[in-house]
Design a protein that fits this description.
Strand 11 and strand 12 form a beta hairpin. The chain is mostly beta strands and about 290 residues long. It is flat, with a radius of gyration of 30 Å. The longest helix is centred in the N-terminal third of the chain and has 6 residues, at about 50-55. The chain has helices at about 50-55, 65-70, and strands at about 10-15, 25-35, 45-50, 110-115, 120-130, 135-145, 150-155, 165, 170-175, 180-185, 195-200, 210-215, 220, 230-240, 240-255. Helices cover about 5% and strands about 40% of the residues.
Length: about 290
Amino acid sequence: VPMDTEMRRLEVALQPDRARYSPGDEVSLDVSVTGTDGAPVPASVLLAAVDAAVVGLQGGGVGDAFRSSLYASVGAGVVCTYASHQVPLGTPGAEGGGGGDGRGDFRDVVLFQEIRTGADGRGSVRFTLPDNLTSWAVTALALGDDLRAGTGLGEVPVGIPLFVDLTMNREYLVDDRVTIRLRAFGEGLDADAPVAFEVSSESLLSDPIRIEGVAFEGVDVPLPALVEGRHEIRVTATSGEMFDALVRPMTVLPSRLVAAETQTTELAAGDSLPVPDSVDRPAELV
């Protein structure tokens, strides 16, 4: 007998306290859990807020997988059966079924927390946003004391009128000659709006690099000779009264050689030198 899982479905609603947020804002998220009859249900709710781009790459949301896993069929526990007579075969039929200092804090997950709704089916959670300019997909998995279950999906959009984008690798060699690219985007910018960029680094640049550009177009900035070590590159963009700052790490290595390997082989007269298949460049014999 297939189980009608809709009879045990919970409705989960998520409501943020604002329609839009800026990086670093605090979010207050209200949670409401009700049954199919609309009555409030006390439940344990697992909340997760993940970058919407990551959720999209994974197929988007949890769908009904939570309840499908919870109400999965289990074995009847029958080890074996025996029939003394052949069971008469019936006619075939249809199968049945069932159902400030700069933005530098970037993360893919900003919330993973369990809360408990009260007798009124309501609960809330507060969390602080990092510096990502994205929409956060909030998923909720609710489980009542009577094993009724449901899922909910909400969104916390984050944006600012102007934001600066930096195209740069995280790692370079000390002999590399590096040029970074800057762009300014945002709903507050008009096409061809003038933008003033500034690049600074306490450990890499003696003086800030200032350059002018226009909105939505790339500006190339060559950096001076690199110095081995870990550095922070700070980039600002200003257009009118709008401003944004971005901080990105950079590591400069002397070489990409991780380890040197030495192999010793004793050779007798007439022996040939064994060369591993992995050697694809000239070898040094000592």
